[in-house]
Specification:
326 residues; Rossmann fold; Dihydrodipicolinate Reductase, domain 2; 2 domains; 8-stranded mixed sheet; 7-stranded mixed sheet; 15 strands
Length: 326
């Protein structure tokens, strides 16, 4: 069925948004993720939904009418879905590109492994302003880290890893908490660090430990630790150990970093707050205090991180550390 997008609001649009995934559930997950951006800034949203069943023969294009709940944040934005089976995937750029509004930025959200997609991704990279990828569909994070390191220097586009963006707030908080020589040396020499993350049954996230893995990799690289081995939830470094602890929850967001324990030196715990997320920081040698951090689960701070902030050398060093965790 042919799509019929409205041209009446084109002059009010600020950008094009292409979202690629392999399921309707993931499409809805990404749409919810970017809803704070769409609430404030009208755009044209083009979903590419890959139908991966072996016998499927699908090539559909249709517009999505917003539900009453979606109307609250979609505003003047419009949405189109391109559903294509594996054998028709090469047709996706031909179906999408004519609907892009010229002279506007093109943000590309990629729900599959960007290091292995050689069919249609290169075509979209030629027109994209920024690539945002989510690695939840990737089964082997170590292999992904190796592959990503190989293409970092040749990737001629601004990009952001969603899980890296999610932990930007807690990384900044750790930088603040240990921002003196005494505490930093205690962190560097800690024998054991435990990271507790939330795991929610029924969450669309397959790998809810990814952000904890990223965070410990960043810490290990920052502190100059040398990797030895990884066994399940325990990562061994020379003279140091990191333990990842899963906290089961029935509701809420999966993958959140809830508690960071650094030996007997520091206890950091995420607190529920009505407006601003807070950390309760409890040093062993001084009174506890609260530290506000940006909301990196959703909200405008998270949106700014994934769409506008540059990637840093710390991301490369984190990937280098994770690539050794075989």
């Amino acid at each position: 069925m042919a799509a019929a997008l409205s041209n009446s609001s084109i002059k009010t649009y600020l950008f094009n948004l292409i979202i690629y995934s392999h399921s309707e559930e993931r499409r809805r997950y990404f749409e919810e993720m970017v809803s704070p951006l769409i609430e404030k800034y009208p755009c044209r949203i083009l979903f590419i939904e890959g139908v991966m069943e072996p016998d499927a023969d699908v090539c559909q294009t249709f517009c999505l009418a917003p539900s009453p709940e979606q109307e609250k944040f979609l505003g003047k934005s419009d949405r189109m879905v391109i559903r294509v089976s594996k054998q028709n995937l090469s047709k996706a750029p031909l179906l999408v590109l004519p609907y892009l509004i010229p002279d506007l930025p093109v943000f590309l959200i990629w729900g599959q492994d960007p290091t292995k997609e050689n069919n249609i991704l290169p075509t979209f990279l030629n027109v994209a302003t920024r690539l945002v990828f989510d690695n939840d569909s990737i089964s082997n994070l170590c292999e992904f880290a190796e592959s990503m390191l190989e293409i970092l220097d040749t990737l001629d586009i601004d990009f952001m890893d969603v899980d890296w963006a999610h932990i930007s707030g807690i990384r900044a908080a750790i930088g603040t908490i240990f921002n003196n020589e005494s505490y930093f040396n205690k962190l560097k020499n800690a024998k054991k660090i435990s990271l507790t993350y939330t795991h929610v049954a029924g969450s669309p996230m397959q790998h809810q430990d990814r952000r904890a893995i990223y965070l410990q990799g960043w810490l290990a690289a920052l502190l100059g630790w040398k990797f030895k081995s990884a066994d399940g939830n325990r990562i061994q470094y020379e003279n140091h150990e990191v333990i990842l602890i899963k906290e089961e929850k029935e509701t809420g967001a999966g993958g959140e970093i809830k508690i960071i324990d650094v030996d007997q030196i520091m206890h950091i715990e995420s607190l529920k707050a009505a407006a601003t997320p807070l950390l309760r920081v409890s040093p062993s040698d001084s009174p506890s205090y609260q530290l506000p951090i940006p909301n990196m689960q959703r909200g405008l701070a998270f949106i700014k991180e994934i769409f506008y902030h540059p990637i840093t050398i710390h991301y490369r060093k984190t990937l280098e550390m994770i690539s050794r965790m075989k």
